[in-house]
Amino acid sequence: MKRSLANHNNGFTLIELLVVMSIIALLLSVLMPALGRAREAALLQKDASRIRSIHSGWLTWAAGNEGRFPQPGLTNRLAFQGQEIKGRGAEDKVANSTDNVHSLAIMENLYNADRLISDREPNYQVFAMDNYDYNARNVPEDTYWDDNFQVDLSEGGAGCNVSYASIPLIGERMNKQWSNQGSSDFAVMANRGPMFGSLDNWSITYDIFGGGRSWAGNVCWNDNHMTYEETLYPVSSVLKTSDGSVNDNLFNIDCVTGVCHLWGNDTLLVLVSELQEGGELYPYHLFPTMQWDDQ
After folding, report:
1. CB distance 99 to 151 below 8 Å
2. What is the pLDDT of residue 210?
3. Closest alpha carbon to 94 in 144, 168, 151
4. Which residues contact 83 (CB under 8 A, 6 or more apart)?
5. What is the pLDDT of residue 198?
6. Burial grade of 154 (CB within 10 A; 0-12, 13-18, 19 or more)
7. pLDDT at 36
8. 3-state SS, one letter per residue, for the chain
9. Which one, of 56, 47, 177, lies nearest residue 118 by Cα?
10. Any bridge partners for residue 179, and if so which?
11. Which regions of the chain are under pLDDT 70?
12. Taking the model in full, what pTM does it have?
């Protein structure tokens, strides 16, 4: 008698399915870390491109403004002979805060507000300004940018519309470096760092590229080249004076002689929400209100 083939099953057995699933799981365990590293590398490169494009915008502005990067106080100046006249009058130095620098640059189409936010931004208080008012500019009314652009990281504050720290426009560092003639070994902008460059056990800024354990980030130098650093003291960052030199912390106030002050020529990358006159005691000094994630 011939054997019936009606019940013959050509499918996979349970053991075969388990073997295939095990192989797939093994492949995923091997590939996932590699894919994760590739994604991190892509985000790091994209972030570096963002920072460089911001600095490139400043260089574009400098080409038509006597080599200076955007200085809001030179656009919206103090009254000249009792009148607000465009391009006349002394520089309004207290206008040179970080928010005004970026708001002026956005108004001048050097870059847009989205460019200022990192894809790896870990602080919920930092977000892109999505309603920038390009119609705010009104020269007869002495208005040159949208004043609603914010740099405020304080708890319960208005929030911050920029991810990246840059040098405050005060003192020797501004006079020497806030231009297209600045030094190639001077850091002008980077991912934000911990308060005053302190190596604490924890900081929100460690979550940007440091894996939550330490600071790491992209740094833009004043010749527009980028480096990736895993230290607050990059090899190229050196404070040089007539008294000697020291390694320069990207986010702290450094000095050679032991007498440190805000107005030196060392690197200090931070967000500045406000500048105030020094008063009679310090008539030539401006005092910045600095914004840190962990204050």
Report:
1. yes
2. 93
3. 168
4. none
5. 94
6. middle
7. 63
8. CCCCCCCCCCCCCHHHHHHHHHHHHHHHHHHHHHHHHHHHHHHHHHHHHHHHHHHHHHHHHHHCCCCECCCHHHHCCCCECCECCCCCCCCCHHHCCHHHHHHHHHHCCCCCHHHHCCCCCCCCCECCCCCCCHHHCEHHHCECCCCCCCEECCCCCCEECCCEEECCCCHHHHHHHCECCCCCCCEEEEECCCHHHCCCCCCCCHHHHCCCCCCCEEEEECCCCEEEECCCCCCCCEEEECCEEEECCCCCCCCCCCCCCCCCCCCCCEEEEEEEECCCCCCCCEEEEEECCCC
9. 47
10. 68
11. 1-12, 31-37
12. 0.86
Instruction: Please report the pLDDT score of residue 17 as a whole number.
Output: 79
Length of the chain: 295
- How confident is the model at residue 236, as a pLDDT? 92
- Given this model, what pLDDT does residue 284 score? 79
Dig out the tokens for 90 from the structure: 């002394």
Question: Do the Cβ atoms of 44 and 230 come closer than 8 Å?
Answer: no
Q: Which residues are paired to 190 by β-bridges?
A: 165, 219
Q: What residue type is 147 in one-letter code?
A: D
Residue 16's pLDDT is 75
pLDDT computed for residue 48 by the predictor? 97
Q: How far is CA 271 from the centre of its chain?
A: 8
Distance CA 185, CA 225 (A): 10
What pLDDT is attached to residue 74? 95
At residue 15, φ and ψ (nearest 5 deg) are -65, -40
Closest of 160, 158, 66, 149 to residue 111, by C-alpha: 149
Which pair of structure tokens corresponds to residue 156? 């319960």
Cα–Cα distance measured from residue 202 to residue 156, given in angstroms and rounded to the nearest whole number: 21
Distances (CA, A) of 127 to 65, 191, 223, 228: 30, 15, 28, 23
Copy the structure tokens of residue 164: 């990246």
